[in-house]
Design brief:
Chain lengths: 113, 110
């Protein structure tokens, strides 16, 4: 059973629309991450989030993306004006401290048409 | 920056064959090393880990030893099963986010 729950499991959207992907931890954690995996390709880091602030982001994480923890529980990734190349699996992860493993959710498959 | 290079697949083996998936890394400092497995249609699951040089991680018959002198963390299993068919990712973690290799797809045939 994954330690974070992601919803929805699959989202289909039209190009130019906004999507919000959600991540809910089973227990209360401070460190969260979003990763992306384009079909059949590498798992890529997007952003890390600690104590309600972005702590690090990759070059992929441009102004189109944003993250927040609106209610102190759910952790969301928003993609504004989606593009075809945003189609991918998006994984949320949490951990306890540096050098520890990340624990991933089952992912949200985003399809942009 | 930190990076991971792993053997590109796909790898196809017969059941009970010996498996090796090579992984080497580049990092400053002393990262922790991990192998993750992704079964079809599922997310990433931690398979095993090693946090310092000469540590051996093991799980479900898989093993990997943290070799600082060769900057390697090769994954091995003595006798693979059909149920081991999946994509395997080598990863490292220093002080910040986790870096993944490109993944190696393993198919085990009966």
């Amino acid at each position: 059973e994954p330690e974070v729950t992601q919803t929805p499991s699959h989202q289909v959207t039209q190009m130019g629309q906004e999507v919000i992907l959600r991540c809910v931890p089973i227990s209360n954690h401070l460190y969260f991450y979003w990763y992306r995996q384009i079909l059949g390709q590498k798992v890529e880091f997007l952003v890390s989030f600690y104590n309600n602030e972005i702590s690090e982001k990759s070059e992929i994480f441009d102004d189109q993306f944003s993250v927040e923890r609106p209610d102190g529980s759910n952790f969301t990734l928003k993609i504004r004006s989606t593009k075809l190349e945003d189609s991918a699996m998006y994984f949320c992860a949490r951990d306890d401290r540096n050098n520890s493993p990340l624990h991933f959710g089952n992912g949200t498959r985003l399809t942009v048409t | 920056g930190d990076s991971v290079t792993q053997m590109e697949g796909p790898v196809t083996l017969s059941e009970e064959a010996f498996l090796t998936i090579n992984c080497t890394y580049t990092a400053t400092g002393y990262p922790s090393l991990f192998w993750y497995v992704q079964y079809p249609g599922e997310g990433l699951q931690l398979l095993l880990k090693a946090t310092k040089a000469d540590d051996k991680g093991s799980n479900k018959g898989f093993e990997a030893t943290y070799r600082k002198e060769t900057t390697s963390f090769h994954l091995e299993k003595g006798s693979v099963q059909v149920s081991d068919s999946a994509v395997y990712f080598c990863a490292l973690r220093g002080n910040n986010d986790m870096r993944f290799g490109a993944g190696t797809r393993l198919t085990v045939k009966p």
